[in-house]
Amino acid sequence: MKTYVLVLLGVVALVAARPDVDLDEIHQEQNIDDDNTITGSYRWTSPEGVEYFVKYIADEDGYRVLESNAVPATADGVRADGAQGSFVSSEDDDDDDRK
Question: pLDDT, tens digit, for every residue of 40-58?
Answer without folding.
Answer: 999 998 888 899 999 999 9
